[in-house]
Amino acid sequence: MTLRDLINKLLGRETASANTARERLQLVLAHDRVDMSSLSTDLLDKMRKEILDVVAKYVEIDFDEVAVSLETENRMTALVANLPIKRTLSGEIQLKKNEKKNK
Amino acid sequence: MAKTNRTILICSGKGGVGKTTLTANLGIALANTGASTAVLDADFGLRNLDLLLGLENRIIYTAQDVLDKNCRLDQALVRHKQEPNLALLPAGDPRMLDWMKPEDMKTISNLLSEKFEYVLIDCPAGVEDGFKNALAASKEAIVVTNPELSAVRDADRVVGILNTCDINPIQLVVNRVRPTMMANQEMLSIEDVTSILSLPLLGIVLEDEKVIISTNRGEPLTLSSKKSPASKCYLNISQRLIGEDVPVIDPNKTNKSFKDKFIKLMQTKIF
């Protein structure tokens, strides 16, 4: 709070409009940024595939149960991925594969 | 052959925030440093760059004629009389919007970048085809906004699209800055705008009545009144754009009166 805000409060005046502007803007942008159709469809699909590819390198995933979505709460947007693991691929097998490739 | 080779999109999302004025002034300022500079009016629907540069009576051919091969590029380019390093490639007529494709815009900008060190593309408002065409032809971008809600919101949209299009760097210019209103916290501050859009700040432009006068005359400020507040800002932006190590103009430096000091005191954070 600034000195100005304090005096305004004591006098029962409205707070400076820049604060209101900032708050309104942050709220509306939180919505806009998620609304952007480019992210909710094509890009999200592409991202889902790439994430699965990476994870599938290390563990076996149950592809039927995979869920990747964007969730917004309290102005924060999160990418939520639920990837049920069937079993881990043995570390040794992976290493041996890599060694063969290197040769 | 040109040494530097930069194709810069000047865009904003919202209309009327000062894209064309920035393009004209930056064009003159860059040309003034000796760099060959071209400004391309990509706003085919509502072209105005020719007016701001005072070149509207000298247009013979347009970008459309270049694409249709009715003329050579250098026949369509309009050289600025007082600043011969600057050339304008005028926009064609609005019907071009119907058939124009991103590739056409790329063709034009490639032709220009062969001849010029700096190519500034004055982008149309909005995020539709006109914008996407201009975008396809650009390598870096300057996003212009005003310190007000609607302009920042639209700029955010544009930044979202630029981020997916391999445009780099994307820099910010905050136009029509009123230091006193900002100090009174009745206007979004520069820090507010830069942090919300999370873009590096290329520069600010102070609100200045001279901008209107210069438009009336068709003489960009950086040409006719170099000492006016806005003109100093445009020159600062051009210096920073070409890589000179100068700080962004501080809007509060212009405040020296007792009243301004009092306003500053009122901004002191107490808790």
Q: Please, could you describe this protein's structure?
A:
The complex is a heterodimer of chains A (103) and B (271). Chain A has 4 helices and 4 strands. With 103 residues, chain A is of the alpha+beta class. In chain A, the strands form 2 sheets. Chain A has a two-stranded antiparallel ribbon with strand order 1-4. In chain A, strands 2-3 form a two-stranded antiparallel sheet. The N and C termini of chain A lie far apart (65 Å). The model of chain A has no long low-confidence stretch (mean pLDDT 76). Chain B is an alpha/beta fold. In chain B, a hairpin with a 6-residue loop joins β3 and β4. Chain B starts with 5 loop residues before the first strand and ends in a 5-residue tail after the last helix.
Topology:
The complex is a heterodimer of chains A (103) and B (271).
Chain A: H1 3-10, H2 17-35, H3 37-58, E1 59-61, E2 67-73, E3 76-82, E4 85-88, H4 91-102
Antiparallel strand pairs in A: 1-4, 2-3
Chain B: E1 6-11, H1 19-32, E2 37-41, H2 49-52, H3 63-67, H4 73-76, E3 78-79, E4 86-89, H5 96-99, H6 102-115, E5 118-122, H7 129-136, E6 140-145, H8 149-163, E7 170-177, H9 179-183, H10 190-197, E8 201-206, H11 210-217, H12 221-224, H13 229-241, H14 258-266
Parallel strand pairs in B: 1-5, 1-6, 2-4, 2-5, 6-7, 7-8
Antiparallel strand pairs in B: 3-4
Helix pairs in contact in B: 1-13, 6-7
